[in-house]
Predict the structure.
Amino acid sequence: MSVGTEWLVDAAGCSPERLADLAAVRRLLDGLVVELDLRVVGTPSWQKFPEPGGVTGLYLLTESHLAVHTYPEHGLATLNLFCCRPRTEPPWEERLADALGATRVLVRRVGRGEGAWQ
Amino acid sequence: MSVGTEWLVDAAGCSPERLADLAAVRRLLDGLVVELDLRVVGTPSWQKFPEPGGVTGLYLLTESHLAVHTYPEHGLATLNLFCCRPRTEPPWEERLADALGATRVLVRRVGRGEGAWQ
C-alpha cells in the first residue's frame, strides 16, 4: 500500500545571495506549483531567519506538501515534495540551477506507506 | 556537509476514526513538539479533507519542519520530522500506537545535504 512518492532533493553549490533571498526562493516554489499543477490549500508559510539568513517555506497541498529550507552558509537548499497522486518528475537539476545556481543536485525518491505493510 | 536528519515515519494499522479526528492527530504533533523541545514559528497549518476524512498538519520550526498526513481509508499515517540540530530520536512506535492505534511503524532516517556533496 503506497500513498505516494516523496522526493527529497538536496541542492549544493548554490548562490548564497539567492538562498537568502526569500522572493527568489518563493519564485522557485511558486513556479513548481504551476509546472506540476499542484493545488495549494490556504496560504503558504514563509520565514526568513536571522544571519546567515536562510529561509523556510511550507506549502500545504491537496496532494500533500512542498517544503524548502535554505542554508546560505553552506550554499545548500533542501526541498521535499510529497505527492499522493502520480506525477511526472520535474527536471530538478535544471530548475535548481536556474533559480539558485545549484551545481550539484541529489534526488532521492521514497515511496510512502508501502514499507509499513511489509 | 549534513544540515540535519529527517525522519520519515509511516504508521500502518491505525484506527480510521483516530486518523480522521483532527484534534487527536493534533494532540500527537503538539505532544511531539513538547517532548522534543521543538520551537514552532507562527501558527501550524491544519486541513481536514472531505471523506474519507484524512487530515494534514504542517509545522514550521526553527529546527526545520514537522508534517503529518493521514489516510483513514488505508489505516495509515505518514510523518516527517526534519531537524537541523542533533536530537534524541523519539520512541515513534510507542507514540504512534498510543495516539493512533498503529500496529506497525516504519522509520527511515535520511541525512539531508550530505549526499549532495559526494
User: Anything to note?
Assistant: The CA atoms of residues 68 and 79 of chain A lie 4 Å apart. The first strand of chain A starts at residue 4 and ends at 12. Chain A touches chain B through 39 residues (CB under 8 Å).
